[in-house]
Amino acid sequence: MKKIFWFATGIAAGLAVAKRLAEDPQAQAVIDDATKRARDFGAAISEGFKEREAELTKPARKPAAKKPAAKKAASKTGTAKTAAKKPAARKPAAKKPAAK
Fold this sequence. Notes:
This protein is mainly alpha-helical.
């Protein structure tokens, strides 16, 4: 029953708006202005979406190629590797006196 009531109410409201738009050119101008603004907003959103999509889909820049020949030459000369540092010994934490 509720569905029929809301369906009939929607039809009546639609007919009332259509009659008002047919009788009042000022109301038609307001609707036309709102429609134009909504389309402009939708176009701006669409344009921004397409720009962002193009940013995300364009191929990423490849990093500069390393020179493998220089690396091989350094390893053949017999240069010594630097020794790994040992972690520093931890100092025991100073005990704080208990608060009374």
